[in-house]
Design brief:
Chain A has 332 residues and is α/β, with parallel strands linked by helices. Chain A has 9 helices and 10 strands. Chain A has a single domain, classed as Protocatechuate 4,5-dioxygenase, Chain B (3-Layer(aba) Sandwich). In chain A, the strands form 3 sheets. A 6-stranded mixed beta sheet of chain A has the order 7-2-8-1-10-9, with helices on both faces. In chain A, strands 3-6 form a two-stranded parallel ribbon. In chain A, strands 4-5 form a two-stranded antiparallel sheet. The C terminus of chain A is likely disordered. Chain B is built from 9 helices and 10 strands. The radius of gyration of chain B is 18 Å and the shape is globular. Classes of the chains: A alpha/beta (332), B alpha/beta (297).
Amino acid sequence: MILKGFVLPGLPQPLLTPDAHPGYRKLRSAFDQVKAEIESLKPDVLLIYSTMWPSVLGHQVQARSVCEWVHVDEEFHELGSIPYRFEMDSALAKKITEAGTERGLHMKLVDYHGFPIDTGSVTALKLINPGQKIPAVIFSSNVYADRAETVVLAKAAADGLRAQNKKAVAIIVSTLSNRLFSHGIDPKKDPTSEHIHSLKDQEWNQKILEFLGKGRLEDVAQLSRQIQREARVRKVNNFKPFWWLSTVMGPHNRYQGSILAYESICGTGCAVVGLEPAEFAARDLEFDEDSPDVFTGERNVLEDVSHLGGMSSQTVHPGIHPGFEDGDGPEQ
Amino acid sequence: MKNGSGTGKIVAGCLAPHPPHLVYAENPPQNEPKAECGWETLRWAYQDLQKSLSEKDYDVLIVLSPHWRTYVGTHILGIPEAKSLSVDPVFPHLFRFHYDLKVDVELAEMIHAEAQSDNLEVQMMRNPDFRIDYGTIVSCHMSNPAWDKPIISLSSNAATAYFNVDVMQEQMISLGKATRRAVEKSGRKAVLLASNSLSHRHFTKEPSLPEDMSAEHIYNHSQYLWDMKVIEMMKKGQTRQLMELMPDFTEQAVSETDSGALTWMLSALDFPTKPAKVYGYGTVIGTGNVVAEWSAL
């Protein structure tokens, strides 16, 4: 069961230099609010899907019971080091990995001393769970994965919670627009140097926040592909975190959204948002994307796929009128 | 090693890809996981490169690594020594390497100064807790497993993702020139390592035994054709033509040349026209990798 969902940015400034800019302080205050809310909710576990932990080999799940290291961000190393000691819910991580495997995903447990937990997860766990009273499970974001895999991954997480009868807070670590300035800024000396990178990014961030503020989580999820095109530097295949969050929480718009902060960090759009299950939907729309229960692998669209079944969202003969045999063309 | 005499030289530039699988299969004492075998053609290629470099008189390895990814310009390792455990975030079951290395900070600062004078965005990395990325470590280890030379590591900035390959090329050509000037002013003899694969589409699954070579092959034929085209150009000394082809190659082969490592290295060598010595080609989890050397002697 998911008690509440949160969207958190992963850049380290609110943790390391909250007073370098008024916006960082506002974000830090919002993190503090999230911390207080989580303490009052008393979840068994924090589920974190981090866009800042890229994976290639399927989906990795952090399962080491105690993770201890001194982390330094590869970009913002001058801001300082981050010593941490985190506790993970190893039993749940294993259960989710089993569930994901049963659902056709390539899943890998991560249980190694010194594994580099990403800056986003480190920042989130340090700020919202400072005493590490609540164990966590962290999910990687596969660079090649698209919607189907991500939806199935979230369903595997829900399987694990059900199997172990655990209450969770679900968190995605992600910026909205992710374009950093490609030059250094000094927001302490010149506060005006810190702002959203472009008006286009700003407008897209505001649109996303307008939806989230009204609790329209599934609407944002359905916009993910367009957000990827319009407001994201395309470092990975797609913009996936809202697919994961909407699936693990429930793919609909029945939420109470609260925007706790929205500021820029080095040009990126950073928002702290809460989403609480509600009685009524903000809007009741029809969604046209399927909700796969299992991942059956990538489809090779260059080969004859007429022997395949169960493809609910695409014809096996794209662009060709139905009813023709293989090899026949449409009427001229 | 000379300091600031102005007679420095880049003695070789190498394409030295960094799949952690190669270190895993080598079974050095520094790496925790142990392998039965694997990726021999590439490892033999690296052995030939090691032999060639061992016959050269050089002071420092300078590596540009795609796995130290920065977005605000190029960062340069600026701590005198580093000792820690590097765990690959993608292949942690294969690479957990205990490193202990020295850095030529003086030359690193000279590269920084030369790059700044060309208006490039550069920054020194001074945090002593910083963990060295596995790309840097793999390329350096496979080129010089004795670790008896200091290194300099340069980050890869994301100009390809943020803008396009042309912008990346322009920046990396400038950075290459700045590196060359710094080496010449320093009096050092340097070997440059471009730590990137060619085609770079991975399989998203691996066999239960990672070194099971019956499962290893190129991801698809088009990647292979692109890799062979690029290698052919290297063998003919057509490095300037390769630069012109780089945008198409990078996009269509999903190449790790997007990191700028190869462009930086060839620019630092002033785009050599003599053929590269190609030591070997092999695939690692579907990606195409070549070990090659341009000797400047």
